[in-house]
């Protein structure tokens, strides 16, 4: 009977060893497989991320280029407008262009003289020409008005900043006052 028990124990031990070894090998194989599978997934995700980053970088570069081109075009348009305005002012100052007062009518004697000189009737209808002194005055006045407008805009911006600073200060002061009142109440109740 001893041999029978020994054979049964040997069989149980053999089965246990087989299951243990099989489980170990199966776990080890599964672990390596999952690690390889996970590494493959990580590699795919890295490739996809790199492709998306490249696409985003290209889009950013395209947008920056378009913005730079638009800014350059806007600057050119601005400079063209300034050149045109300066040219018009120079023409006014050098009597190549004449400002006219549309509210006045030339006198009959001036109309007769100008028609003899070859002026058209449209000049007479548009009003009399302003003197160069009046033109210079109006141009200077417009320039001063532009300067005052820019100063007003700057003052309004400063005023908005001061008002915001005062509002922020008042909020901080109120917060500190509330905290001081709470502290005083807590001290009084102790």
Walk me through what this model shows.
The protein has 190 residues and is mainly α. The protein has two domains: 1-97; 131-190. Helix content is 86%, strand content 2%. It has helices at 2-93, 108-116, 121-125, 132-189, and strands at 100-101, 128-129. The protein has a two-stranded antiparallel ribbon. The longest helix is centred in the first third of the chain and has 92 residues, at 2-93.
* Spans of at least 5 consecutive residues with low confidence: 110-125
How much helical structure, as a percent, in the residues? over 70%
Question: How many H/I helices?
Answer: 4
β-sheet strand percentage = under 5%
**How many distinct domains?**
2
Global Rg: 46 Å
Q: What is the straight-line distance between the termini? A: 89 Å
In which order are the strands of the major sheet placed?
1-2
Sheet/helix structural class: mainly alpha
Write the layout of secondary structure elements.
Elements: H1 2-93, E1 100-101, H2 108-116, H3 121-125, E2 128-129, H4 132-189
């Amino acid at each position: 009977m001893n041999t029978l028990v020994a054979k049964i124990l040997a069989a149980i031990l053999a089965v246990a060893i087989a299951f243990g070894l099989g489980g170990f090998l199966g776990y080890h194989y599964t672990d390596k497989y999952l690690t390889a599978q996970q590494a493959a997934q990580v590699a795919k995700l890295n490739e996809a991320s790199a492709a998306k980053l490249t696409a985003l970088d290209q889009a950013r570069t395209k947008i920056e280029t378009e913005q730079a081109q638009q800014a350059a075009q806007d600057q050119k348009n601005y400079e063209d407008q300034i050149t045109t305005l300066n040219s018009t002012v120079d023409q006014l100052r050098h009597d190549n262009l004449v400002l006219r007062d549309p509210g006045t009518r030339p006198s009959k004697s001036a109309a007769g003289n100008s028609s003899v000189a070859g002026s058209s009737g449209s000049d007479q209808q548009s009003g009399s020409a302003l003197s160069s002194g009046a033109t210079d005055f109006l141009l200077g006045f417009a320039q001063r008005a532009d300067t005052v407008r820019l100063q007003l805009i700057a003052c309004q911006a400063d005023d908005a900043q001061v008002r915001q600073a005062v509002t922020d200060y008042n909020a901080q002061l109120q917060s500190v006052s509330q905290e001081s009142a709470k502290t005083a109440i807590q001290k009084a109740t102790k």
